[in-house]
TrEMBL record, chains A, B:
Record's function text: May play a role in DNA repair. It seems to be involved in an RecBC-independent recombinational process of DNA repair. It may act with RecF and RecO.
Keywords: DNA damage, DNA recombination, DNA repair, Metal-binding, Zinc, Zinc-finger
Zinc finger (C4-type): 58-73
The organism's place on the tree of life at top rank: Bacteria
Organism the protein comes from: Fibrella rubiginis
Protein name, per record: Recombination protein RecR
Domain Toprim: from-to ranges: 81-181
């Protein structure tokens, strides 16, 4: 595509570097900004720069944060006796959206993946160990770790590694239930999921 | 969705104002930028601001441009005797991509649409008339106007209006061919398009 303006071309090139956005979509977005107030573009540019330069990571759970401690870790009403271990911030948001969990989090910042060259030392595993080692002196000792990782090969590997590492602390270690999604149709469920849901059946009490 | 950081929330809000981008996609884009070099975000923000504040419109054809005249109008190798009238810059790019047209353009900046309250006076029609009125003194007088507007109700209305307005100039006025797309299947063509393609059949010479 030959652009009539170098400025447009540069903007389109930069926007199309974002994942899932091709040249045509980028051009549509740029032309949209051109039609709107100059202020909208300024606010967009400023909020992106501010976010990228000023955002921090929580010193305790490595979640994204504006301060040294994230709003979840700093909230005294959260249950400090449970830690939910997740891959990244998006998973924290996903669990928070369920409104079913009131404990704390630990964000690994990735998942063990030999293919992508990500090993345990690249993740925030040491800091989780450290967090649990300091646990004995805490007011509210940790009693349970929930491993909320994706049910993929990498997720299972990471969960297996963490289980081994966490065993010495004598905590309850759990994982989120795998099974048929709510609203899902048995007929269309894959055999692995359906098989697992039969093995992990829940007894009516 | 409750964000752990106000900075992230602001960025997501701004990004999700773009057309076709919802909150989830915006969050994915923002987290992607966070994983990349700070420089990438800076370049993106700067290119958007530069584009929005510095881009101009060509004084002759109203195409987007870095200078007073766009690269197409300023190019002496373009054929000044044909003007292709289009709705917006994206159409210029689409026609340019075909590499089948070497004339000039005139960008209307929209299309007559009573529903959206856009009338002829909101478009760059007067400047097209002015361009043709000054035609007699030009080195390379305009001989043909191609109306390359979308085959919709609004496009046809605009084309009809322009034909009436341009009649006094005694030029050849044409429109792009409507018919079965290349690679299209007769069986699946709609009856209006197929009917039009029979009426506008091309005789083998």
């Amino acid at each position: 595509m030959e652009f009539p303006s170098k400025l447009i071309e540069d903007a389109v090139t930069e926007v199309s570097k974002l994942p899932g956005i091709g040249k045509k979509t980028a051009l549509r977005l740029v032309l949209h900004l051109l039609k709107r107030d100059e202020e909208q573009t300024q606010t967009l540019a400023q909020s992106l720069t501010a976010m990228r330069t000023k955002v921090k990571y929580c010193q305790r759970c490595h979640n994204l944060s504006d301060d040294d401690l994230c709003t979840i870790c700093a909230n005294p009403r959260r249950d400090g006796s449970i830690i939910c271990v997740v891959e990244d911030t998006r998973d924290v948001l996903a669990v928070e959206n369920t409104a079913q969990y009131k404990g704390l989090y630990h964000v690994l910042g990735g998942i063990i993946s030999p293919v992508e060259g990500i090993g345990p030392s690249d993740l925030h595993i040491e800091s989780l160990i450290h967090r649990l080692a300091n646990n004995i002196q805490a007011d509210e000792p940790v009693k349970e770790i929930i491993l909320a990782l994706s049910p993929t090969m990498e997720g299972d590997t990471t969960a297996f590694y963490l289980q081994k590492k966490l065993r010495p602390f004598n905590l309850r270690i759990s994982t989120i239930a795998r099974g048929i999604p709510i609203g899902g149709d048995l007929e269309y469920a894959d055999e692995v999921t359906l098989g697992r849901s039969i093995l992990s059946r829940v007894v009516y009490e």
